[in-house]
User: Fold this.
Amino acid sequence: MNAHATISSDVTLVPRYGRIAPAYDRLHARWLRHAGGEAQSAFEGAVTALIRPNMRILDVGCGTGSLARRLQRQFGDDIDLTLVDACPQMLDRTSDIAVTRVLGSIEKLPMPDATFDLVTCSWALETTTRTHRAIGELMRVVRPGGRVCIVFCADLPCARVSQIVLKTAVQWRGTGRFLRLRDVEDALSRLDIERVRRLPCNGPAAVLVLDKPA
Ligand SMILES: C[S@@+](CC[C@H](N)C(=O)[O-])C[C@H]1O[C@@H](n2cnc3c(N)ncnc32)[C@H](O)[C@@H]1O
Assistant:
């Protein structure tokens, strides 16, 4: 499953990510330092706690592969990692990691149903306006009894001026949206999810752990 195939043209943010790919890690580090750090820690803590030997894990909107690199350092060959991203230039930046790489959109994942034990998605849900469809895809490819972990930019109060500045920068660059929690909750209520947990964190971001019924 390794493809640089064509994907649908409604994936409008992809050219923007292609342009910023070389600078992405630096830009994202600034976001994490000033705004998304707590959410990222909660997300990574949840992901790490859920991992068991031999798990098949899918990272959707993998970007330059920072989560995959971290998980491989920690779990080595005990896990089987697959990365998906809609932007070839981002996917190319993961070439140093021994994983399966797939070009594809969160709105139509090129994987069969129930393929993975755990699906992760960090700061990529906000790349689509079709939240319900995207979460539906994350849930489709996870097996019954599996989990989906998501961290995303949320339209929640900013505690510091630096957060407001960064929020404006993300919106100006046009690389993502700040999702309204109510819209995400509406999408979740229409899907077959056994349990939704929102992990505590401050800042304009939210972390969700979704359980698929066994
Ligand atoms: C903000 S970055 C997050 C990258 C990485 N997950 C991280 O935590 O650093 C968003 C990623 O989503 C990708 N992306 C944009 N639109 C997408 C889509 N429709 N489907 C899948 N990935 C998409 C971008 O190419 C980019 O790599």
Notes: The domain at 14-211 is CATH 3.40.50.150 (Rossmann fold). Residues 1-10 have pLDDT under 50 and may be disordered.
